[in-house]
Structures are given as C-alpha cells and as structure tokens.
Amino acid sequence: MSAFNRFGPRAVLLAGATLLPTTLVAQTVPGDQPTTQATTPDAAPSGESNDDLQDIVVTGQTSRDRPLISASADITYATREDIDRRAPRSTADMLELVPGIFVEATAGEASNNYSVRGLQGGGQRFVQLEEDGMPILYGGGGADFFFQQDLTIDRLEAVKGGSSGVLTVNGAGATINFISKRPNFKEFEGAMRLTGYSYGLKRADFYYSAPLAENLAFNFGGYVQSSPGVRKNPFDYAGYRIKGSLEYRLPSGGSIRLSGRRGDMETAYYASAPYRFDDGDPASIPGFNIQRDNIGGDAFRSIQVPVSTAVDPDGFRQFRYKDGIRSLSNQARLDIDVPLSDTLSIFGRGRYMDYSYDFNGLFPGSGTGNAGLASAVNYLTPDPAVSPVIDLLRAGFAAYPTAQRFGIRNIRTGEVIGSNQTAALNALNGNGFLQRTTLNHDYVDGRDLGINVGTRWEVGTGSIKNSLTVGGMYYNVRRNQDQSATASVVNDVKNNSDIYDIVALDAGNGVVGSLTDSGLVSYGDWGNGIRQRKDESYSLYANDEIAFGDLRIDGGIRWESDTATAFDGNSAAVNQAVQPSVGGVVRNVGSTFNGTFSPTNAGRTGADGKLTQDKISWTVGANYLITPGFAVYARYADGFQTNNIDPITTIELYEAGVRYQYGRLFSGSVTVFRTNFNNQSYNFANPANPTQQQNINADLRTKGVEVDVVVRPVRWFSVDFQGVFQDPKLENLQIDGATQSGFEGNRPERTPARLWTVTPAIQLPNGLGDIYGRYKYVGKIFADAGNGVALPSYGVTSVGVNLNVTQQLQVSFNAENIFDVVGLTEGNPRQGQTQAITDGYFYARGIVGPTYGGSVTFRF
Predict the structure, then answer these.
(1) Whole-angstrom Cα distance, residue 727 to residue 708?
(2) Predicted confidence band at 528 (pLDDT cuts at 50, 70, 90)?
(3) Is 187 exposed, middle or buried (0-12, 13-18, 19+ CB in 10 A)?
(4) Residues pairing with 130 in the sheet
(5) Other residues' Cβ atoms within 10 Å of the Cβ of residue 551
(6) Model confidence at 534, in pLDDT bands (50, 70, 90)?
C-alpha cells in the first residue's frame, strides 16, 4: 500500500503510536500516547481531497505534525479499508501490504514465515510485530500464534530499518505496528461483521465503544470463528480472541488507559507435501491434488506416542491432529501519557502476557526427505539400496524368523497387501506411493513482561525546532519447550491419508507379527526435545530531531544488555524401553529425557547457563523538502538482533529515496538500499540424523530498489504498484564452524530477486463502493543455500468488490488465485542446505488453489 494515502488526509503513526479519534495528531514515540492539537472527529475520508501532504507521519521520531513527504525513513501504512481489501486469511497475509516483505503464508493462520530486504526466508525474528507500539513477543518470531486482525484494529503501519532498530527491540529489519481503535468519548458506536469462505471459514467480528463519563470511555471487541483451514480437512478448528480497554483523559491533556486481551484459538497447520515436475513445472502427484488436498486427516486424529517417563509418567504423549495448533494467551496492559508543561511530557507503557501453544503438525518428508517418498513395492523390498525402512525390515526378520515376506496393513480398514501383490501395491491411490511423515508435537508455555518509559522535550525558535526523547525499556521473558515424542509413521499419498503398519507375513500372506505400532516406525526423531530459555533485557535510548526550515536531520541510539539463560534437557545414556503394551520391533523411545538439565553450549555460557551480551544500535537520517511536493531523503542504520545465548546478529542499512506528489495524478516513492546482515545464524536438522542440530552462519549482502506509487489518471480509477527488485548474495558461509565451498555468491534460500504487486481499483459512483483486482508476482527462489533446487516464479490474481448498500451496511466479496496457479514458497527445510530432486519428485510448501468468500458488515 502506498505510503501516500490515495483516499485523502490521514494521520500516520508508526513505531509505537496509537490512534486518537482526531484527524490532527501530534508527536508519538515508543511508549508515548499521542496528544492532539485539534478535536475534529475522524471522519471517513471522502476521496475528493487533493492534499495528501496533510498526512502526518511519526516514524519513531519525535517532532510534531511531520508530513509524510518530509520523513527520513522508509514508511508504509495501510488503512482499515486497505486491510479489508486484502481480505487476509492470516496475519502474514497483511504483511504483503508492505513493499519488500516476502511472505510465505502457506502454513495456515499461524506459524508462517516472512522476511525483509534479502534476508533468507524464515527470517521473521528480524521483523518485529507490534500492537499499539509494544512487541507482541520480545523475540519477534512466533507473534502470529497470538494475534490476528479484527474490527478493533484501525490500521497497519510499518517502518523498515532505520529508527525501527533503535526504538524497539529485535526490529532491526522492520517494525509492523497494528494500531487499535481508541474508545469513543462522544457517542456510542458499534459494528458487526459476518464472514464466510469457500473452504469452510465461519467468523463473526464485533466492536463496541461508548463514553461512560465526561472523560471516561471504553471499547470492547474481537471475533469468534471456526474453520477447517484452507485445505480439505475432516476437522473444524474453533476459537476466539477478545480485547477491551478503559481510558481516562486527564484534564490537563494526556491519558491513562487500562486494557486486556485474551485468546483461545485452534488453527490448522500445513507443512510440506509431495510434488512432481512436469516439463519443468511443479505439478500434483496422481491421486493427490496439491492445490486443495491435505495429507492429514482421520488417521492422525489422536496417536499415543511412546516417550520418556521423565516427560510423562505413563510413558506416552498424545499427538492430536484434531486440535491442530491451540494457542492460549492472556494479557494485561497499562498506557500512561502525562504532559508536565507545554514543552515537557512523560510517558509509560507496560504489558504482561502469559501464553502457550500446543502444536500438533504433520511434516511429510521430514528427516528422510525425498528418499522417504517411494513406491510401496520399494518400501517392502529388503534391499538397502531400495527400501527407505531397511533397518526396520532387518529387525523384522530377526523378530519373526518364519516370515516369508513383508506387507502393509491399513490401520483404518485392516486390509493387508503383501509384497508379492505388486499390482495392488502399484495401484494404491492411483500412484502406488508410501511416504514417511513426522508427527511434530511441540508445546511451549511462556511469560513476557515488557515496560517502556521515558520523557519528551520540545523547543523551537523561528524556523528551528528540536525534539528530544529519552527512555528505557525492560523485558523479562521465559519460555519452556516440550518437543519430545517426535515420531514418524508410514502413510500413503492421498487426501486424508491412511497410516499403515509394516507387517511380517507367512507364505499365504497371513500376518505373523507387526514391525510397527499403529504405523509408528520410529520415536524421538528430533532429540529429547526439552528446553528452557530466559531473557532479561535492559535498553536505554535517545532520539533527537532538529529542523532547519526545510532541512530535517534526526538521529537515535539504543544500548541493550541482555542476560540470557539456556538449558537443554539431558538425554539418558541408554534409551528408555517402551511400555509393555507397545507393539512392533522398535523397543525403545529413542532419545530419552532423563529428567535433568545442562547449560546449552556450556563453553559459551558457563555452569549457570547464563550469558550477558550488550550492543549499541544507532541511526542517522536527513530529509530535504525541495518543493512542497518533492523531497529527497537518506538514512544509515546499524542495528542488531538478540538471539538468547547465540551471538548477536548485526544489520547495517544504507538507503536513499525520493518522494513526489503531483496533485491527484501521482504520488509515490522510490528507495535504493543496501543491507548487510552480518553473522546471520540459525540451526537446521541434520538430514542424515534429525536428532542432531547443525548451525549455519553466513553474511548476507543485498542491494536493491523499492518502488511504491499510486497513479490516478481520473477521479474514479487508480493503479497502485509496489515492489522490490534486489540482488541478495551469501558470503562467508560456514556450517558448524567450518567454511563451506560452493556457497559463495549464492542467493539466500527462499529469497526472491523480484517481488511486486499491482492493484487497479475503480471507484463506483455516488460512494457506492469499489471494484478492484490484484496481481502478485513472486520471482524464482531457491529451496536451499546451495541453490540446488530452484522453485519457479509465479503470479497470483485476485479480484473483489466492496458495496456500500447503505451508510451502515457494507457487503464485500473476494476471490483469490482465480486462475489456480501453482506457487511454491519453500522446499523441504529439514532436508538440509543442499537439496535435490529424486526421480522427478520432491517436497515443497505451496499456496492453495482458488478460494472465494465475503463478508457483511453492519455499523451502528
């Protein structure tokens, strides 16, 4: 969405702002509540205004009434109308409104990936998601488990780099701030919205606000929903999220606001699925429609997985696909803004959230990769060069010496097919395939306390004005993780797939015994899975901005000290035996938690598991307003990301841009940038042994240009174009500390060189609404840092209409991916950094086929 509001005057609040029900908004900084210079009601923009330069923007800086055109940072915002037009199915979908952010929204409503400015895919921990200027989670990544837009959200605001890394924690790449509606102090207002989509989503949103006394008002809103997810699913996931606030306006100006938020939500989750290449293009395997189908289903409803008794005393941990991801959160928050004089004010905000999620996700091809996707005949052939489960077959011969052959037994139907029945095996579901699918049960509970307090001082003489803000932040967070009992099963390749036991057969194909237990072929695949993490962070920051007429110079600095603690559960020297009731030939639970902990990377942290690291982030920028409609700006930023006990990652950003406004006809910006991500470090599973984690460390270098423009040749028609064209490269790549050859100059995994969207819109006469289209293009990406598997470019077309039936009643319709395009956002991340395609087949994550639906909104 263009940084210049095509619909008329708006106030833009970034990096910590909140919205008052007024059109003119004064300065806002992290932790600050905006004060107003006028009390004009925030009327809906008419679209007839010709003065976009009235847009006020605060990008984590401190001067009052700064127009967008004079800002010295890369800023984007999206109004409530823009969000509705995007019709997001997830929080990640909304980030597509921000140029330069690559979104991999293929997992469902939660646990999606996104990255910015050349960072490899899955780099969301460098993009801080905020709600009203406070991080949803201190660490950045994972925030979409606990947040989704609803009618309580007024708009989205974003700033990339620059002051983002100074005025918030862990936002060196970008800050995406979701601004809530503020209570109405004048009259009662409310809204109801009913939404439905073709894949089965049913949702009801609501919002209410009213004054309680002269200076006291409240609001309350949220949504309830049920949905099977965007792919076929026999289960329906339900839940709700609600929030409310009570605000008191001080007689001298400023405010005190107490708010709370609660969520209890179940959502579907989708990971990799099998594809084939058809003349170089990704396509479905026969019997499995990659655009709609889902491996998960009834067979995965509830599975008892053997585990260490130190995890669960009865020796089992239940995997529940029927629950998907269940996310619980409770938050209390206090925001205070108090003016002490005309030039001095203090602010404070704090929030405490306790949260948990119980993740039950299926990962086809995980660990075994493409080798686990093979014909059923090969699975049952006791040849180490052929069978993906040869170790299991060998154990089967030892356990059942009278067996003549092996076969598969459908857990659901009980049907047995022997290895000698090749025709039946090859006809299985029209493709003859079996695969290994990992059951990933990951439970996390955490606490996240955040506080931000400070003061602001403003002075001005003639054409010289200065604004100084100083403050401090404190975060105290902890996180406990139980990812034990990660196991794998053998299942077929179809929608709502079946799980199979591998069985030993006699000469007549009678079952002699089972090699597996309810299809489970291994336990403890990803280690014992028990971890504890804590962070206690202190930040001090200052931001100063000075204006000399049309020249504005600003700079900010933040020092953060983080004391991190990390413990991993210890594994027993001898793996624990499975419980007596467990069948099959696998007789232990795999990697076994023994009930004790040791410091993670003790050589780095010491015996107490603690490590204190500190770093300084700073930025300086300038803007010169050449004419009232033409400005140039430049900025340098040196930011960082804390990583618990892992080394701090630094991010260096250079950018320069121009902004131009020509009446109604044209408005927009062009930015050139260079980004240096130093010591980018993350772990991945060793594809040869998924219980082992390997570390990749590399420097990333990206240069590019970002475009964000709106052209309106006539009053009723506009075209919005936004995109990024970049050249990201890897340097100095190491795996487990050893320099790797063949990676230098490669493109980071899952990073497009081209990413753009064009949105034409037609305004209907007499304010009736609008009709719009949207075309999103994603350039070719690589599935791995070795650039071995290239995933082709694709473009997705969407259309929609918004109709204002009456002043209170609006009807909207949206259809996405109307041409059923196949688009892949990543390969198989657990197959390592040098992926390959085996016999024309591979695993990847992809977008869904056409979906359509709409909503009815009634405002009162």
Answers:
(1) 18
(2) very high
(3) exposed
(4) 135, 177
(5) 13
(6) very high
Is 746 within 8 Å of 729 (Cβ atoms)? yes
On the 0-12 / 13-18 / 19+ scale of CB atoms within 10 A, 461 is: exposed
Per the CB < 8 A criterion, the answer to whether 168 and 66 are in contact is: no
Structure confidence at residue 741 (pLDDT): 77
Other C-beta atoms closer than 10 Å to the C-beta of 185 total 19
The answer to whether residue 64 scores a pLDDT higher than 50 is: yes
Average pLDDT over all residues of the chain: 88
The answer to whether residues 247 and 217 touch, using CB atoms and an 8 Å cutoff, is yes
Predicted TM-score (pTM) of the model is 0.91
Helix (H, G, I), strand (E, B) or coil at 518: coil
- Banded pLDDT at 191 (limits 50, 70, 90): very high
Distance CA 712, CA 730 (A): 40
> 179 with 154: CB under 8 angstroms?
yes
State whether residue 605 is helix, strand or coil.
Answer: helix
Q: Which position has the higher pLDDT, 73 or 576?
A: 576
Across the range 26-46, mean pLDDT stands at: 35
Q: Does residue 32 register a pLDDT over 90?
A: no
**Burial (Cβ within 10 Å: 0-12, 13-18, ≥19) of residue 341:** exposed
Q: 288: closest CA among 398, 435, 169, 158?
A: 435
Query: What is the full DSSP assignment across 141-167?
Result: TTGGGS----TTEEEEEEEESTTHHHH
Q: 270-283: buried (b, 16+ CB within 10 Å) or exposed (e) per residue?
A: bbbbbbbeeeeebe
User: Residue 538: which residues within 8 A CB-CB, separation 6 or more?
Assistant: 472, 473, 474, 560, 561
Whole-number Å distance between alpha carbons of 453 and 470: 9
Both tokens of residue 381? 């052939």
CA nearest neighbour of 139 among 391, 574, 468, 476 = 476
Which range, 53-62, 135-144, 322-331, has the best average confidence (pLDDT)? 322-331
Higher-pLDDT residue of 417 and 462 is 417
Q: What is the DSSP string of 648-701?
A: EEEEEEEEEEEEEEETTTEEEEEEEEEEEEEEEEEEEEETTEEEEEEEEEEEEE
Tokens of 676: 């240096």
Do β-strands 374-375 and 344-364 pair in parallel, antiparallel, or remain unpaired? Answer: unpaired
Taking the C-alpha atoms of residue 820 and residue 797, their distance in angstroms, rounded to an integer, is 9
List Cβ neighbours of 462 (8 Å cut-off, separation of 6 or more).
Answer: none
Cα distance between residue 272 and residue 770, in whole Å:
37
CA 354 – CA 340 distance, rounded (Å): 34
3-state secondary structure of 214: coil
User: For the segment 620-632, what is each residue's pLDDT rounded down to a tens digit?
Assistant: 999 999 998 999 9
| Size of the chain in residues | 860
Mean pLDDT lowest for which of 81-90, 753-762, 766-775? 81-90
